[in-house]
Specification:
Elements (H helix, E strand, L loop, with lengths): L1 E9 L2 E3 L3 E2 L3 E6 L5 H15 L24 H4 L9 E9 L8 E10 L5 E10 L2 E7 L5 E5 L7 E3 L12 H6 L4 H16 L1 E4 L10 E2 L15 H10 L7 H12 L5 E6 L5 E8 L2 E4 L6 H14 L5 E5 L7 H17 L3 E5 L3 H12 L8 E9 L2 E6 L19 H19 L1
Parallel strand pairs: 4-17, 4-18, 11-16, 16-17
Antiparallel strand pairs: 1-2, 1-3, 1-5, 5-6, 6-7, 7-8, 8-9, 9-10, 12-14, 13-14, 14-15, 18-19
């Protein structure tokens, strides 16, 4: 789980400060305020560690098949107006779900532009407990390796450049002696934290009428929801003792949202093709024929049950095309699965209904302000500004930005005033 994040000179952010991340973190804010940049910083590192080129320092994208985003050039990531040094940085802290020699740690990396326009690591710092390692870029592309706060490097060479932003190369590990194993384990745990991010964007693909199951389980749901049905088919048709666990869980939440009673899978004859059937009000319909709301929420619910314990599920606008009650129930889904399955949710949303239900859950003591972070992002001139919403034990927010969700009470007052005025005119 990611426990904090800090960005400096990254896209809209001059400096976020240290942002505390919780098991459920909700990002709110106006359009184009900088919310997505917070999410994208972690996705940039995820696609870097998954790059086939281990020598890459930062994978800014361009491969439509394998990359999550195309960030463009170094200048597109660097905050506009940044003067010397032209440098941006990403820092995060984490707690590992799986117990090992490294149970928590911190990653910090700053980047500058090379002569050919690529992003190159200026300084990488990895730490866990009392162990801290740094790789600092020197002249002529050489890198110096430091342990803790020592001012003299234990090695300096052009072959010591970090790999995929998170790892020291084998030559550096060897120079660290007995500390080398810790540094290597730390990089592996950081890589696992980033690889275990499941991301779903706001644009999700429409369903097919039927699907072929090739008797395999996908590694991950893709950012547009692709592979969701493969997960459902694998979960329902595999003989692993957990048959229908995911399907039953999804059916429960669809019923809570009052959009369907359950989902089932129907084989087409004796072929390897299957339909997803939605049951509601005594009618069984193909997923393709039930409107867009259920197909769009299906990847969100599936990700919550399919992501391995300890994963981070990042969602942009999960409420798309859902009616108000269903949006509210999403808050319960995030809270319950974060606790029962040890999944972290980072959710960017514009839904007032989701937010209000989160307040209610805190008031009911079904969760607490210690388990939930609600962050508001706004734009002041050309800078993104973050405000942590202060929520008390009754779910009340005492530093709420004015007019973001409109003025519901004011609208009610105005309606009452107009009704009274019209009645007086008629009398």
């Amino acid at each position: 789980m990611f426990t904090s994040l800090r960005l400096i000179n990254f896209k809209a952010w001059e400096d976020t400060g240290t942002i505390a991340l919780k098991p459920v973190t909700v990002l709110l804010g106006t359009n184009s305020s900088g919310k997505s940049s917070l999410i994208q910083s972690l996705l940039l590192l995820k696609q870097t560690v998954q790059s086939p080129d281990r020598s890459v320092h930062l994978n800014l994208g361009g491969d439509e098949t394998n990359d999550l985003f195309n960030f463009g050039s170094f200048d597109d990531v660097l905050k506009r107006g940044t003067q010397s040094p032209r440098e941006f940085s990403i820092t995060f802290a984490f707690e590992a779900y799986e117990q090992s020699r490294v149970n928590e740690g911190r990653f910090s990396c700053s980047y500058r532009q090379t002569a050919v326009g690529a992003a190159a690591i200026q300084e990488l710092a990895l730490s866990t407990g009392a162990h801290r390692f740094r790789a600092v870029r020197k002249e002529k592309e050489n890198y110096a390796i430091f342990i803790a706060d020592e001012t003299r490097p234990c090695a300096k060479d052009k072959n010591l450049a970090p790999e995929r932003s998170i790892a020291l190369p084998a030559e550096a590990i060897a120079t660290l002696g007995s500390n080398g194993a810790i540094a290597e384990d730390l990089s592996l745990v950081i890589r696992r934290e980033l690889e275990n991010i499941c991301y779903l964007g706001p644009f999700r693909r429409k369903p097919e009428r039927d699907y072929v199951w090739n008797k395999t389980t996908p590694g991950q749901i893709e950012s547009d929801g692709h592979r969701t049905i493969d997960v459902l088919l694998s979960g329902a048709l595999s003989k692993d003792g957990k048959q229908n666990e995911i399907l039953d869980g999804i059916s429960y939440w669809l019923a809570r949202m009052k959009v369907a009673e359950k989902l089932t899978i129907k084989q087409l004859g004796r072929s390897s093709r299957y339909e997803i059937i939605v049951h509601k009000d005594g009618i069984a319909a193909n997923l393709r024929d039930v409107g867009i709301g259920i197909p769009l929420i299906l990847p969100v619910l599936t990700a919550g049950y399919f992501a391995p314990p300890g994963s981070t599920v990042i969602l942009e606008e999960p409420e798309v095309h859902l009616h108000p009650l269903a949006q509210s129930v999403l808050a319960e889904f995030f809270v319950r699965l974060s606790r029962s399955r040890h999944i972290q949710f980072i959710v960017e949303t514009h839904s007032e209904h989701l937010f209000r239900r989160m307040q209610t859950l805190i008031a009911r003591k079904e969760t607490s302000a210690e388990q939930i972070a609600m962050l508001f992002v706004e734009r002041v001139a050309d800078n993104a500004i973050l405000r942590k919403l202060k929520v008390d034990e009754f779910g009340r927010v005492n530093n709420w930005p004015q007019h973001f969700f409109g003025d519901a009470l004011g609208e009610t007052r105005e309606q009452a005033r107009l009704m009274l005025a019209r009645q007086q005119e008629q009398n």
